[in-house]
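#struct-queue
[09:14] JT: dropping the first one here, sequence first, then the structure tokens:
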Amino acid sequence: MTTAKDIMHEGAQWIPRTETLDRAAQLMRRLDVGALPVSDQNDRLCGIVTDRDIVVKCVAAGHDPSHITAGDLVEGTPRWIDANADVSEVLEEMESHRIRRLPVIENKRLVGMISEADLARHLSDDQIAAFAEKVYAVR
């Protein structure tokens, strides 16, 4: 059985919800990633902030990223997957919620992220096609 931990990208880091967006962008650049999980004061996942969020919801809206925090942007219920979940569960979670990045949690701690690139490296062409159809299809 292939698990989430088998296909995830290790070394994911999260930022506290109180961190400013300019610092989040700097960390994204340093890590070469487009999204960061956001933690609350108890080190629990409370959302994800993406590079697109920073540009569209902050900069393009005329806000100063040095004064807006990651917590200001996160919304909704954060989605995640247990490290031991089967890859079919990973696909179901990502497809049903139409998300492109999924934090992987083990023992209540962030251990990695699964992105579209990770799926492309580990899944069959048919699985990737089905994923793309479900995530990108216009509803």
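[09:21] JT: and here's the second one, same format:
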Amino acid sequence: MLFGTFVTLTQGVVAGAEWFACYVIEYSLSVDNLFVFIVIFDYFKITGDRQSQVLNYGIAGAVILRFLFVYLGAQLLQKFDFLILFFAAILVYASYQGLASRDDDDEDDTDSIEESAVYKTLTNLFEISPRLDGDNFFTQIDGRWVATPLLLCLLVVEFSDIVFATDSVPAVLGTTQDPFIAYSSNIFAVFGLRSLFFILREAMTRFTYLEPAVSFVLGFIGLKIVVDYFEIIEVPVIGSLAVVLSILATGIYLSVKELDDSSLDPGSK
């Protein structure tokens, strides 16, 4: 909040609104990250301080990767502005996928990790110890250095962040093409992801309407990019921020209401 206020005071109200809009967008998209991280940690049986260790390294990697994605994306859009429509297509497709995937919630998430290309590639590249060795990423077995499941978990988290960036970076660049605003807001949101994970680890899995709300946010931003590009309707940044906050607030309200209703229903337990 203080940094966003600093941007507003030094660069103007419009820049400040863009910063806060990008921050809220990235922070809300981080909800999807949390769901995936929970599944990854549970699969690899990473608990307690080890989760904090993996998240710290993951955030450090995200700081570097997001800079590359944001900087390169901004440079491309400055030279080829029509590429913003490609970003819009990514967001609309991600929105559709997010809403459609709700029908497949009964699938085993741990199976999806084992079947993923990232998991298979990493297990082919590294010899993996069957057991954790404290907070070490490598351990010795019969005189050989091998990777521990903790390292494999970290690498899966890092690759997951790259996948998430394909949604979040286009969403942010669809709101502003200023690299400083896009990157700084992105990083502050990523930093917030760590605290949000530990605060809401259990609650996030029960907020059933939050994921579809995030998908609607992606769809809205994608459509906003299209109408702005073709000058069909001018959507002000503050208006976009209000819509995004309204969608997220609705998702949270419906989730909380469902939890309250289920707690009052004796047959739900």
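[09:30] RK: nice, looked through the second one.
[09:31] RK: The CA atoms of residues 10 and 57 lie 32 Å apart.
[09:31] JT: good to know. The mean pLDDT is 83.
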